[in-house]
Structure of Tryptophan--tRNA ligase:
Amino acid sequence: MAVIFSGIQPTGRKHLGNYIGAITQYVAGQDRGDPAIYCIVDLHATTVPYAPAELRERVHDTTAVLLAAGLDPERCILFRQGDVREHTELCWLLTSVSALGELNRMHQFRDKSAAQRELISAGLLLYPVLQAADVLAYRAHEVPIGEDQREHLELMRNIAERFNARFGENTLVVPEHRIPAVGARIRDLQEPERKMSTTAGTEQGTVYLLDEPDAIRRKFKRAVTDSDDPPVLRRGDDKPGVTNLIDILASVRGVSPQSVEQELAGARGYGDLKVAVGEAVVEALGPLQERYRALREDESALEDALAQGASKARAIAARTLADVRAVMGIGAVP
Ligand code: TRP
C-alpha cells in the first residue's frame, strides 16, 4: 500500500471547495493509506505577513475542522509541521539540489511576491522546497492536492530525482500527485468561471464550512446559473454555473453527477436545483458544524491529538533524515 501525504494551510475559513476537493479525500485516504499523513503547515504560513498571536488559533481551527470532518487520530497521522523539526532540516539539505531558476518561475511565487507591499521574504521563494521536504521526509507515494499545486509537485519530483542522482539512488521516493476529479472544479457561486477561493473569490459566492444554515441556503438561492430558456438542467462546458451546482450536489450526496442529472429531469427550473443543493449542503455540514463546536472548545484535547500525531510523524521522518545526512556526509559519522 502507498504512503499518502498532504499538507493544509492553517486557516479557520475552509470552504466547500476545500471540503470536497481536499478534506473528504483525506478522510477517504485514512482507509487506504499506509499510513495516511496530514500536516497543518504553520511554517509555510510565515512566508507572508501574519499575526503570531493568531497562528496557533488558526491551527486549532483547522485541527477541529479536520477532526469534525472525520479524520481519526487512531487511523491517520495528523500533526502540526512546526512540531517536527525534521521538516526544516530537510528543507535546508534539499536546497542543495533545488534550482533557483525553477523557484523563480513558480506561478505562486510570482503571484504572491507581486502582491507583497513591503518585504518579499526569501521564505516565499523557498516555500516549494519546504513543501518538498514535507512529502519527501515520509517517502510518500501519493500526494492528494488541488490543481493549483501541480507545479509544486513537479518541482518536488525534480528535487527528489536530482537528490537521488546526486547522492544515492533510492534514498528518496519520487511522489505522484493525485488531483481529485470533481473537487478540483468546485467554482464560485457568483462567478462560476472561477474556482471557489478564500482569496480570489466573492464573499457571496464562497460557501464556508462554518456558515450558518440560512446563509448557506441564501448563497445557493442566489447562485448564478445561465439564461437558457427554457432552463437546461445538464452539465456542460457552456454551462459552468449549472455544472457546478450539479457537481456539488453529487459530491455531498456521494453519488455520480449523471444520476443527479437524471433525477433533475422532472425539475421545473434552476430554482429547484438551487434549493436541492442548498438543502443537501446544509444537511451534510450540520453535523460537521456541531462536532466542530464541541471539538474547538477543548484546546488541550486538540493539542493532545496534535502531539500524538507529531510523535508518530517524527519517528518516520527521523529515519529518512538519518539516511539523507549519511549519504550527504553531514554531521558525525553515523
Ligand atoms: N502548498 C499547499 C497549499 O497551499 C500546502 C502544502 C504544504 C502541501 N506542504 C504540502 C500540500 C505538502 C501537499 C503536500 O495547498
About this structure: The chain has two domains: 4-178+299-328, 213-293. Residues 198 and 235 are 25 Å apart (CA to CA).
